Amino acid sequence: MAEKIRVMVVDDHPMWRDGVRADLEASGRVEVVAEAADGGDAIERAREAMPELVLMDLNLPTVPGVEATRRIVEESPHIKVLVLSASAEEPDVLEAVKVGASGYLLKSATAAELVDAVARVRDGEPTFSPSLAALVLGEFRRMSGGAEPGLTARETEVLRLVAKGYTYKEIADQLFLSVKTVQNHVQNILTKLQLSKRYELMRYAIRRGLDRT
Amino acid sequence: MLSLGILAFRWVSLAWMVVLALTAGELRRPVLAVATIAGLVGWTGWLTVARPAPSWPVLIADLALAAGLNLVAGLVMPAGSVGERPYFAAGYPVAAAVTWGAARGVGGGVAAGLALGVSLVAGQLANGIDLAGEPPAVLLDLAGGSLNFVLAGGAVGLVARLLERSAGQLREATEETIRARERAARLAERESLARQIHDSVLQALALVHKRGRELAAGGQVPPGEVAGLAEMAAGQERALRSLILRDPDQEATPAGAASLRAALEELAAAERSLPVTVGATGALWLPAGQVEELVAAARQALDNVVEHAGASRVALFAEEDRGAVVLTVRDDGRGFTYDERRLLAEGKIGLAKSIKGRVEQLGGSMAVTSRPGAGTEVELRVPFLTHRGARLEPPGPPMEDQGG
User: Could you give the ipTM of this predicted complex?
Assistant: First the structure.
């Protein structure tokens, strides 16, 4: 039998954590090794419990989910963060992805979808929902012309298809590519997005004169 | 700043002084008298024109002049003629006591009054009056005259402090009233929010609660009922969340504009028979009429999918692309071979034609991509109309501000 995926669940609602734990453990593929009720806790327990994956709520007390995500990924790059969020928080979701989250899932997802997403993210496959893909596309359009790395025509095409609800398999069929290649495109988009965030921070630092110290 | 009342009093005293000096008989030292009057006119004129703040130098100069005036009165009036109220000085010295009281409070007023009282005594001596030889009644009168200065300065000081304090109290009371009003406004807002939550969310919760129990008691649970309850809870979750997250930016919605993304999200939330995802590259602010037409077209396409496509999910995707708004309705259903002429011949074109009509009204076009087994994509492309020529996207997407 394969090793279980070690997961930490971060959410400020105990009932929600219980429900997610039950859903994950019922699958037999996941072991919940830690829980945290706020962002500060999450950063600390990620250090101790060393999960492979963190299920992160964004709306958290003490340290917000985006900041907690940034800190966890910075300290332990091998930990993957999957954001579990409500629909109205999409700008936050985009921020979370920029600072290192590997994907996100709506809280309304079914238990099967959740377990599936956990497994795929652990395996290094970025999970882009249609709405996140659209946001990312809009983000790149707004940035176009700047110093940031832009998207290639193929990457834009892939992103638009994800935004239209196509699965990686359907995209692969339509573009005559392998599913692996589609995944690589998505991974590259994610990397460029995170890179753009670093450029953004650098520009900010330069503007504030922090580069001179 | 010296008060206008005291300035007026100074001028009146000065005028009265001149009148008395001219009419009350001979003066012993006319040159000194004229010089004193000229000096006082100059000083009072400067006070009137410059309106200086009652700083220590100004106050001391004023007091020195007033005290000097009492002394000069003794020098210029005929020997032995100065009573407790030297007419040459008239009321002018009182103005100094009053000014001190107004500027420095009771202490200042009393101190200035005492100094003037002393100068009054000095004036008597200068007038050649031997105070030791005077009867007690005269001495009492003199003490009374001195006391008048002290009382005038002290009383004005008291009144000034009282006025200041009540002005402070008035200001505090006004501020308190304003704070109370703000509190009331916040409370009213919270109440109106609470009402909205009561009206919809609590009602939904109560229904989920009640039906949940009934379903559990009934043993067999029809999946449709449970799905309906879940959907209702989800709808309220969205409503509550948007209520909590309602940010001031949204209040800055350009007049006559609407967000295409928000409208599509509403459309998706209302769809009960299959999951609908919404993606948009931004809020996409368009003239409200255009949003309405686009959403109506999307609704027709969605209805068509539900009825004919046998799809498991639908995606709505809106983007701004090279000066156009592109809205895509995409399903993963059975698909078909899109041949407008054949469909027209078979009389199946009605719906597509209606959608196309709407889009063409907006100066746009419709394209259908479909093949059997691969779902259908309906793409609506309309020019990106801006409202009154201005770009409607609010300045700067919110997420750019949060990262810094």
Answer: 0.74
